[in-house]
Amino acid sequence: MAKAPDLPPAHISAVIEMALSDHTSFGEITAQYGLTPDQVKVLMRTHLKRGSYQAWRKRVRQFSDRREHYK
Fold it and tell me: What is the DSSP string of the chain?
């Protein structure tokens, strides 16, 4: 499993906002912050409530089933 990224709080907030957006892919987050999808998932798991994290993962999985290049 990837380790949690060591980022300043402002960057963590920006990454969370990008990850929660349905219009931002993991590729865009990687390009801007250098985080792998696994690192983004660890960051989200660490900073979101359990139910919020699970709802986000479910939504990401559903979108990725419908779109080839989503998250």
Answer: -PPPP---HHHHHHHHHHHH-TT--HHHHHHHH---HHHHHHHHHHHS-HHHHHHHHHHHHHHHHH-TT--
